[in-house]
Amino acid sequence: MAESVVHIGLLLPEVLGTYGDTGNAQVLCRRLRWRGLDAEVVPVGLGEPVPSTLDLYLLGGGEDGAQALAAAHLRKHWRSRSRGAVVFGVCAGLQVLGTRFRGLDGVEHDGLGLLDVTTEAGERRAVAELVATSSELLGRAPLTGFENHLGVSKLGADSEPLGSVVRGTGNGDGTEGAVTDRVIGTYLHGPALARNPELADLLLSWVAGHPLPPLDLPEVDRLRTERLTATRRRR
Predict the structure, then answer these.
(1) Which among 7, 73, 91, 149 is annotated as catalytic?
(2) 29 is catalytic
(3) Whose CB among 94, 127, 146, 215 lies 3.0–4.6 Å from 185's, allowing a Cys bridge?
(4) Is the model's pTM score more than 0.70?
(5) Angle at 135 between CA 130 and CA 136, to 5 degrees
């Protein structure tokens, strides 16, 4: 974070904004401002090059056609994507960040290669609450969100799961999401960073270069506990 303002890139919100994942940008801004830090959301639309100067990049969800369009655009217009940036992708965003993905039409598309993940279309759409136990990266904290996808994602040797599925489908093999260096992908909607504040603060700590002071937000903790409790009762 070279400047006093944290610049959060919201990539292709008109294409990858189907499931409300653009809210992740607002969550990150608010959590920075609550700590007395300035933040700015920088939308980057179709036809625009992705600036190399942003501190954090966000990709959301979208349908197959939008996802293929986004991947093609970003392969061409995001030249600096391999320079160690902090990146967070949800659902279609996860798949675009991977090496390749294939939709229902059977056409294979190249991803950005920031995650060692390949995705194929599954036989049944996963539409449900998703609960996972995070990896040691987040201290085995529970992860919660809503999944709505047909993708079955397989991780290669250069990515590790973000967590292990407790309820729901996730990647389709008992794992959820993927992590490589400072790039994270997940199938959690909600938006994910509102429902999982520890995950939001992990991304922000990577941007800052050090852990951030905790926030005392009992109402957020209460809502998170209520949601997890309700989900477990429905199992």
Answers:
(1) 91
(2) no
(3) 94
(4) yes
(5) 150
